[in-house]
Amino acid sequence: MRGRTRVGAALGVLLLVLVAGCSGAGNRGTTNGFVSGDGSITRVDAADREKAPVLTGEGLDGRPLSTADFAGKTIVVNLWGPWCPPCRAEAPALDQVAEQYADKDVQFVGILTRTKDPTTAIAFNRNKGITYPSFTDEGGQLELGFNDSLPSLAIPTTWIIDAKGRVAARVLDKVSASTLANLIDDVQKSTP
After folding, report:
1. What is the average pLDDT across 34-39?
2. Do residues 59 and 89 share a domain?
3. Contact 134, 111 (CB under 8 A)
4. Could you tell me the CA-to-CA distances from 81 to 8, 12, 104, 110, 151 in Å, in that order?
5. pLDDT for the residue numbered 72
6. What is residue 36's predicted lDDT score, i.e. its pLDDT?
7. Looking at the predicted structure, is the pLDDT value of residue 6 above 60?
């Protein structure tokens, strides 16, 4: 009888641990293996902006890619994955604003994260009509470059780098076209 009580107690504790782990307590926003953002927007005054990392690596097409090639432009960097529901939801807005600002010295670039095979990302971009380049960054090294300025705390994360190469804004979670356009306008106006 005593053995059954111990087994029953152990199963009860295990059940409580499992229920607590699935409840998200202390882990707000965890969904399907990723932490979603809270939608917060961080803007940095021009005088307080930190230097952005120069992102260098390989694009989805296997060719070398570097944000240094876009020096002097406002750069919008989006951390994403085709497996991420908010990333899929925001893709049309990103594409819309990328097209809207293509002739306004703005360059969009993605950082594909936690995706071993870029084939699904290539298909996703083709399906959504996204033509701006994306880095492959399965190990997360490129996103770590933002740790000294505005680190990523969620997927998706969108950063705006001003024309002087400084991190000017960050959005945690999906972003709407109007919010993103307003942020880009603010960054361009506030960059001397």
Report:
1. 63
2. yes
3. yes
4. 42, 37, 27, 9, 17
5. 97
6. 57
7. no
Euclidean distance between CA atoms 39 and 135, whole angstroms: 24
What are phi and psi for residue 35, nearest 5 degrees? Answer: -100, 120
CATH code for the domain in which residue 65 is found: 3.40.30.10
Name the domain count of the chain.
2
Same domain, yes or no, for 105 and 24?
no
The range of the structural domain enclosing residue 7 comes to: 1-31
Take residue 55 and report the two structure tokens written for it.
């992102």
Q: Tens digit of pLDDT for each residue in 135-153? A: 999 888 999 999 989 988 8
Q: What are the residues facing 79 on neighbouring strands?
A: 111, 157
Contact in structure between 109 and 70 (CB atoms under 8 Å): yes
Residue 34: its H or E element? strand 34-35
* 151-180 tens-digit pLDDT: 888 899 999 999 999 999 999 999 999 999
Helix (H, G, I), strand (E, B) or coil at 57: strand
